[in-house]
Amino acid sequence: MSAPGEAVSRPLLQIPLSQGSNLTLGEGISGPRLYSWLGQCHGFWHNGALILASLLFVLYLAYQSRKSFLKLSHGRSYIMMAYYGCLWLVSLLNLVWCFLQAWECTPDKELPWNVLSLFTTSGMLFLEVSLLAFLLQGNYASGLEGLTRTFVVSGILVGLDILLKAIYLFGFGIPLFVDNNDHTHPMKWNLWSVHRLVLTAVYGFILFMYHSKWRERLPARPAFYKYTAVMFLMNVLALFACALTGNGAGFGFWIYGATIVCYHAFYLPLLYVTFLADFFQEEDLHLENVYYSEMKDAGFFDADWE
């Protein structure tokens, strides 16, 4: 009697298929894991806004790429070609940074996250500094000499910035780009406060020049003035947030997080609208004027005067 009972109990308790099915159910649910990945660290709306904004901008650049390449090849502006290439590189790097937000709250990924953030923010800072240098030396100045001078100055400044941040990261062991309540280092917020103070002073000085006797030395472009005003206000807000967070105010940490989202989501489109979009539009107007002159010389509009 005991033998049949044992024979029945064995297959009921030890079924290899049941273990495999449990593993399959645990690992095959991609929907909840995707939502957990998007919602990890800062939350779904934070990560979703960054990913959506950066992805839409890269798709827009891809959609306009053929037309942009044609206009750049006809325009033959070395500065615009180099700047457009840098914009593409930094946009892709920023897209990767937005997709990998979960690394920030993963202990094993803290070092890769800091390195990725260092190069992403440095690339955006390079565009920011070089844009000021490009426009301050003239309206879309071209030539290898102007390109070399601008890129050398911007590269030196950004290189010094990278060196300083690398010393904080690898020398002092301060995770500059891990923004959560567990990493409230006073030295970190002091560095960010100085960083924002310098940028605020630069943009504030340019705004002051617009309302002074040195206004003629600046490009007479309303878009450049609006760009400077927007960046000045954003850096003032970020400076205020860094000062509050360094003193232990939680509200300042929330403001700082909002400025980071706005910077990574909207700065590159703002830069494109301010600098490159006007250049492409001017090329269209130039071609239209050329076509009009050719048609006028050919006598297409003589009937209008009769």
Structural account:
It is a single chain. This protein is mostly helical and 306 residues long. It has one domain (46-173, 185-276). It contains 11 helices and no strands. The protein has helices at residues 2-13, 16-27, 30-39, 44-75, 78-99, 110-136, 144-171, 186-210, 222-246, 250-297, 302-305. It is globular and about 50 Å long. The termini are far apart.
Question: Hey, roughly how much beta strand do the residues contain?
Answer: under 5%
Largest sheet: none
Q: What distance separates the N and C termini?
A: 119 Å
Q: What is the string of helix and strand elements? A: HHHHHHHHHHH
Q: Provide a count of the helices.
A: 11
Average pLDDT, to the nearest integer?
78
Low-confidence stretches: 5-29, 283-292, 298-306
Class based on secondary structure composition and strand pairing = mainly alpha
Count the domains. Answer: 1
| DSSP, total strands | 0
